[in-house]
Design a protein that fits this description.
heterodimer, A: about 100 residues, alpha+beta, 3-stranded antiparallel beta sheet, two-stranded antiparallel sheet, B: about 100 residues, 3 helices, 6 strands, about 30% strand
Chain lengths: ~100, ~100
């Protein structure tokens, strides 16, 4: 089942009883904005136990319109990339195993 | 090059949202732990405006030790993939020529 941002805010608010839902919502928004801003500066983001975000630079290349065969220039691109950390990889891997046992 | 970490995120939350330092640190930790825990339970996480964390199941395949050339089985596994949303892609400057 897919989890959305607002569901995440609900869960966190229910758990951190001393915080208001509004504060949790603003914090989640701030965290995501700060990650985006760091990437826009081409800084890395390293969250231990979770993973890291960094920009991947793709050089300009010439592409082809597959329909017409026409050569079109594709400009250089900066693409956000996420690499799962060790704990993330292990827990997701284990999650798969436990599901198989259930099924 | 600078790297953004949980400590800096907690400082931002303290400065900008006004939680105390302990609350800020706990909430930043809980945010990432909760996403990880949902993914571990097999639930994809969609953060609108930012991106989606999805799960992909990979079948077992045969790999090769690149040094020795010896074939080794790589077991079936589930991995996390991140797909940045349009807003995030635009924010980081989709094309290099912009700057």
């Amino acid at each position: 089942m897919v989890v959305t941002k607002s569901e995440l805010v609900e869960t966190l608010s229910a758990r951190q009883l001393y915080l208001t839902r509004k504060d949790v919502e603003l914090t989640v928004k701030l965290i995501l904005d700060e990650i985006a801003a760091a990437l826009a500066r081409d800084d890395r983001v390293e969250i231990r136990g979770f993973g890291s975000f960094a920009l991947h630079h793709r050089p300009a290349r010439t592409g082809r319109n597959p329909k017409t065969g026409e050569i079109v220039p594709v400009p250089a691109k900066r693409v956000p990339h996420f690499k799962a950390g060790k704990e993330m990889r292990e827990q997701v891997f284990d999650g798969r195993g436990s599901e198989q046992e259930k099924g | 090059m600078n790297a953004l970490t949980k400590a800096e995120l907690a400082t931002s939350v303290f400065d900008r949202i006004g939680l105390n330092k302990r609350e800020a640190k706990e909430l930043v930790d809980a945010f990432f732990t909760e996403i990880r825990s949902q993914l571990a339970q097999g639930n994809p996480v969609k953060l609108s405006g930012f991106g989606n964390f999805e799960l992909r199941d990979k079948n077992q395949r045969t790999g090769r030790n690149p040094k020795t050339g010896v074939e080794i089985p790589i077991s079936a596994r589930r991995v996390v993939t991140f797909h940045p949303g349009q807003k995030l892609r635009e924010q980081v400057g989709a094309t290099e020529n912009d700057d």
